[in-house]
Queue: 3 jobs
Job 1
Amino acid sequence: MKPLLIVSGILVASAVGAGVAISPMLTSAKAVRDDGPATTQSISQNPQGAQAKGAQGNAAHAEAVAPAPAPAPPPVVTPRKNYTYKSFNVDGNYIAMTFDDGPNPETTPQLLAILKERGIKATFFVLGNMVAKHPEVLKMIADEGHEIGSHSWSHPQLTRISQAAVEKELGNTSEAIFQVTGKRPMYLRPPYGSMKPSLRTMIEEKYGLTTVNWAVDPNDWKFRDSQKVHDAIMAQVTPGAIVLAHDIYPTTVAAMPRVLDELIAKGYKFGTISDLIAMDKTPKVQLLAALPNTGKPQQAQQKPQKPKPATASAKPDGAKPASKPAAGAAQPPRAGGVY
Ligand SMILES: [Zn+2]
C-alpha cells in the first residue's frame, strides 16, 4: 500500500507542477490575443496610430528572445458583485457604446463598418433568437473584436417570468453565443433594464453574467429619427457613461457616423464594457460612500460621480415598442440608481 501511495503522490505532485508551470503561459497568450489588441484599438482615437504602436510592439517582441514579461499586462476584469453597471468612474473621457437587440443582417454590418473606420470597439447585447437566425452576423461582430453580451433569448421582462423561464432564456442564449464565438458572455443587458437584486444574484452565480444597464438613453427605438438620436446622445453623454442604442434600426445606424465623429472631436475615447470595468475606480469609492456617516471627513471628497443614472435607467430599453409601458412603472423601486 505504501509504495503505491508514494507513487501516486509523486504523480499528483508532478501533474500539479506541470499545471502551474503551463497555465500562466496559456493565460498570458490568451490574454494578449483576446484583450491586448482590442484594448489598444478601442482606446485609440486614431486607428493608424494604433497600428503603428502594434508594429513597434511586434518588433520589440521579436528582439526579445527571452520570455520577458509583457511591458503592459492586459487589464484584469473583475466585475463588481451584486451590482448593476450604468456608468464607470474612470480617468479620462472613456465611454462604452452598447448596441442591443441584434444581430441584424440588414443593419449590423453597416454599423460594424462605421465602427471599424474609426477604430472603435463597442459591446453588442444580442438576442439568442437573432443569433440562431443570423449566426454569420454574430461571427462578424466577434471577428472585428467587439464584445458580445447576452440580452436574453426572446426579450421578456425577466422580473415577470418564472425562474425556470429566466434560466432557459439565459442558458440558451449563452450557449448559442458560445456555439458561434467559442466564448460565453460575461454581461447581461436585461430587457427593459428590468432587474431585481435576488434575480441578479442568481444570474451572477449560475451564469456568470454581470448586469449592465446604461446612463445615456436616446430612445432611438421610439423616435426612429437620426437627428433626435444624435441630439439626445450629445446632450446626455459624460465621461464614463454607458450609451444605449439599438443596431437594428436604420435611423440609429445612420446617426452613428456624426455621433461618433463629434464624440471623438470632443475628446471622447471608446472601450468595451470589459475595457471600462478594468479601468473603473468605482468599487472602493462607492463602498466607502455607501457606509453610514462615520464622521471621517476625508470620505466626503470621494463622492462618486453619477451622471444622472436615475432618470435614464428608469426607462425601459424599449426594443419592443409594442410591449406594455405599464410594465416599467410596475418595477420594484429603482430610483436613485441603487442597483
Ligand atoms: Zn432590448
Job 2
Amino acid sequence: MDHTSQSPAIVQGGMGVAVSGWKLARAVARTGQLGVVSGTGIDSVLVRRLQDGDAGGDVRRALDHFPLRSVAAAVIERFHQPRGRAPGQPYRLLPRPRHGESPHRSAWSMVAAFVEVFLAKHGHDRPIGINLLTKVQIPTLPTLYGAMLAGVDVVIMGAGIPREIPRALDQLADHRPATLRLDVTGSDPRSEVRLEFDPSHHFDPLPAPLLRPQFLPIVSSHVLATTLARKSNGRIDGFVIESPSAGGHNAPPRGTLRVDADGQPIYGDRDTADLAQIAALGLPYWIAGGQGHPGALAAARAAGAAGIQVGTLFAFCDESGFSDALKRQVLEHVLAGDARVRTDPRASPTGYPFKIVEWNDAAGSAPDAHGTRHRHCDLGYLREAYALADGSIGYRCPGEPVESWVRKGGSIEATIGRRCLCNALFAAADLGQTRPEGTTEPPIVTSGDELRTLGTFLRGRTHYSAADVVSYLLDGA
Ligand SMILES: Cc1cc2nc3c(=O)[nH]c(=O)nc-3n(C[C@H](O)[C@H](O)[C@H](O)COP(=O)(O)O)c2cc1C
C-alpha cells in the first residue's frame, strides 16, 4: 500500500495500548504484509519507556531523527532515566489531554507518534500504518501529524465515526492548520467546539509537503461504510469491516441491548455487515474478526475483499507489546483449555463493549482477579468533555473515582462495572503505574473470541513469532 504496489493481503490490526508497538509492526512489514502501530496513549508510552531506561537506545535513536531538535532534547532531558526507575518509584505523568492545550503539550503526542512510526519503518521499505481510536479525540491531530512526519503510509481508525479525518490528513500533509469537532456532552449543538492543530506553531519555516497517508475507517456495518463514503469531508481509500468477535472494543449490537446469562451482549443478523453493499462502494476492504486461520484469506478474497485484518494471533506473539509474563500466562491457559474471552458491555468507560480475557483463578494469577483495582484517572485518555454552567469545558470519566464523577454531574448508575481502562491497558504492556502503597496497577488483557482456537495454531509451542502467524494465515491462500 505504498500507492504503487498492490494492497496487502494481511493487515495486522492496530492494538492499543502499545500491544502493536513498533517491534510488532516492523516484524509484520518485513514479511511483506501491513504492520500497524497503535497511536493510542502514545505520548505516555514514550515517556514511560524513557523512564524505564530505554535499554538498547531505540527511542533515543528515533529522537535523533526528529526534525524539531529542541523538542527531542526536551523529551530526553525531562524523562530519560538511564538506569530506569528506582524500586517503588512511580512514573512521572504528562498533563492529561484537554481542549486548547498548548503547542508544547501537543508536541508530546507529535514526537511520540513520530518515534513509533520511525522505528516501525526502520530497516525495510514496506509501508506502515497507524491505528487510532476516534473516541480519543484530543491527541488525534498532533498524533497524526507526528506519524506523517515519519512517513506513515496508512491511517486506520475505528471506535467512532471518523468523518472529518480525510480533510485533516490533506491539510496536515501540506502543513496547513487542521481542525476536528470535539464532542462536548451537554453543550449547545449550535455552538461547535473545535480542536485545532497548526504546524506553523512548531515549524518555521515549514518543511516540504508530506505524504498524505491512505485512510481506512473501521466499520461494523454497511450503513456506516456508505455514510462515510458519501459524507466524509475528503478521500477514503478503503474500509476495515470488523465483526463483534474481534478483540478490543466492539460496536454495540444494533437496537436495544440484550445480554446472555453471562451478561454478554447478544448479536444478531442485523449486526453482520452486508459485504455486497460494501463492495458496491467500489473501495477495497479487509475483513476483521475471527479471520485468524488458514483458508480465511482465500475465502475473504473470494467474497471480494482485498484481504483480512488479524489481531488476536499477533497479540500473543514474541514481538507484541503485551508483557512477557502475561503472554506466557495467557498461552499456558489456552493450552490448559481454561482461558475464556468475555465481552463486557460495562467495563470500558467509552460505553462500547470490551473483550476481557479470564481464566480459572485458583492461584490468584488472573489479571484483575480480585477486583482490587482503584480508580485513578491520572492518564485521562477516555475522559469525555462536558459543558459546565459557565460555558467552559470540564472533563470526566465514568471510570474515575465515583465521588468525583458524581460531583461533575454524572449518575452513579453510569459508574457501575466501569474499569479504569487506561491504567489497566498500560499495565498489560508492562507500563503500569506504581502506586504509593507499593502496588503496581493491575492489568486487563483483551483478545478476540478467536483466543479459543489459538491452541490449534500453537500445536504445543509455548511461543511463536509474527512471521509464524503470517505463514499460517497464508497457508492455502
Ligand atoms: C489486544 C488487542 C487490542 C486491540 N486494540 C485495538 C485498538 O486499539 N484499536 C482498534 O481499532 N482495534 C483494536 N483491536 C482490534 C484489532 O485491530 C483487529 O481488528 C481485531 O483483533 C481482528 O479480529 P481478531 O481479534 O479476531 O483477529 C485490538 C485487538 C486485540 C486483540
Job 3
Amino acid sequence: MNTDVIIVGKGIAGLVLSFFLKKKGIRHLVLDRKNMAKHFALAETLPPSAMPLLQSLDLIKIFEKNAIQKTYGYHSMWGNTRIQNNNFFSQLSYKNGLKINKKAIIDDLEQLCNEDVMGYEKMLNMIISKDEVTIEVENNHQKEIINAKMIIDATGRNRAILKKLNIPIQLHDNLICFSCHLPRVKHPKLTYDIFVESFEDGWGIVSALDEETNILSVFTNKENLIQLRLKDYKGWQSVLSKTIVLKDFLAKQAEVKIVGSDANCSIANCLSGENWMAVGDAALSFDPLSSYGIANAIYTVKEALSVIESYILTGDRKGFAAYSKTLFSAFDSYYMVKNELYRAESRWMESSFWKGFFRLEDEENRIDNTHRQNGTRIILD
Ligand SMILES: Cc1cc2nc3c(=O)[nH]c(=O)nc-3n(C[C@H](O)[C@H](O)[C@H](O)COP(=O)(O)OP(=O)(O)OC[C@H]3O[C@@H](n4cnc5c(N)ncnc54)[C@H](O)[C@@H]3O)c2cc1C
C-alpha cells in the first residue's frame, strides 16, 4: 500500500489532521491501534480563548454539535478559602467556552475521514529513512506493508513514534491524575457546574458530565504518597478531607471505578525531522489546569498543515525546523504562565506538592538558555 502521509494515532490531533489533509486532497492513512484502552469520559472543557481557533478552522460546528454544554464560567478556591466566581463575560470575542463529549467529536471526525482510517493489531516493523517511511502491521495474522513519504506521531502522551526514533522527552513535572464518575451532587454555593480547589497535596476539579453524573479528578505528583490512597475509592474520603468544598461531592459508594493517567507538562526534545513530525500531546502536552490540551492539539495541526503540504507537493523541507521553533516558543510561554498560576497558591509552600513551583526560577532560566537548531532542542547544563 502506498500513500503520502502516515498519521499514527486517532485522537483529536490525528483526526483533525486527517480532516484537513482530505480537504487538501493529500493522500494519507490514519493508523489506529485496535486494542487501546477504553475511552473514559472526562468532560473536557475548552476556554473561550480557544473558540476563535475553532472558528477560523471551520471546526466550531463539529465541536458545538458535540458539546455537553456551553460554559459561561467556573468557580474556584485557589490561594485562599473564598469561592471565586470566574465568569467569562469579560472575555473579548467569545463569552462562552465548551464542555465537550470528546468521544462524540472523535466519532464524527472519523465518519468524515472514514476511508482514510485503518485499524491494526500489531506494528511489526517501522523504517524511517530520509525519503521514505515503511511500516509493517499485522491484522488477523495477515501482514501488510505501507509505504509513505512521511510519518506523523499523533499518539498523545504515548509518543509511540518518538520513542521508536529515540527522541528524549523533557518532563517538566510529575503530575498524575485520578478520575472517577460519581452521582451528581448540586452544591448550594455553586452556580456553575465546574469547580476547582487546591489543597495541600494537589488540586481537584469536579465537573458535571450529565444530569446524573459528576466527574471528579484529583491531581498530585508521582512522589506524593496520597496517590496510593487515590488508586482505590475507599481512600478518597481521607485524601479529600483536607478540602473545604470538594469533599462534599464524594458519594457513599463502595465500588467506584478509578482511572489514573499521566497529566504532566512535557515536550519532546525534537518535534520534527526530515520527514516526520509530532502533533498534539505527542509534541507538547500541557498540565490540564489550563484546559488548553485540545486547543493545543488543534493549534499544532494548524501549524503542521502547511509544512506537510509543502513537503508532499514540492519536496521543500524548510518548514520542519520552523515548525519546531514555533512550538518550542509556544510551550515556553505557556510554561511560564502555568507556573505563575501555581505560585498564586502560596498556603503550602513547603508541602511536597507545592514547593517545586517555588523553586522553579532556576529551571525557567535554563529553558531561556536553550539552543535550537534544525528543529533539535539541546538544553545547556
Ligand atoms: C485528566 C485530564 C483532563 C483533561 N482535561 C482537559 C480539558 O478539560 N480540556 C482540554 O482541552 N484538555 C484536557 N486534557 C488534555 C486533552 O485531553 C489532550 O491534550 C488531548 O486529548 C490531546 O489530543 P491528542 O490527539 O494529541 O492525544 P490523545 O487524545 O491522547 O490521542 C492519542 C491517540 O493515539 C492512540 N495511540 C496511542 N498509542 C498508539 C500507538 N502505539 N499506535 C496507534 N495509536 C496509538 C490513542 O489510542 C489515541 O487514540 C485533559 C487531560 C487529562 C489527562
